[in-house]
Amino acid sequence: MADEAAACRRPCGTTPLEKSHRNGWSYTEIADRLGITKGHISQIRSTAPGPERALSSESSEMRRTG
Questions:
Q1: Helix (H), strand (E) counts: the chain
Q2: pLDDT tens sequence across 10-28
Q3: Region Disordered: which residues (predicted)?
């Protein structure tokens, strides 16, 4: 599940990780539940594209696929 969260390339704040955090889970609780370290959570969060980059990549994907 952690890899899925890392691979998720949605606009900022819409990953399952961010949704869980907005719903009241601490990043420590999320890490414990996933069986990973809080440091890995930080890595996942830092590698996700920023909102402008995520949106621009989605727009370019839409242009390519028609």
A1: 5, 0
A2: 555 578 888 999 999 999 9
A3: 1-21, 43-66
CB atoms within 10 A of CB 17: 24
- pTM attached to this predicted model: 0.54
Within its chain, how far is the Cα of 64 from the centroid? 24
Residues 49/7, Cβ–Cβ less than 8 Å: no
How far is residue 52's CA from residue 30's CA, in Å, rounded to a whole number? 26
The CA distance from 12 to 36, in Å, is 21
Dist CA 23 CA 19 (whole Å)? 6
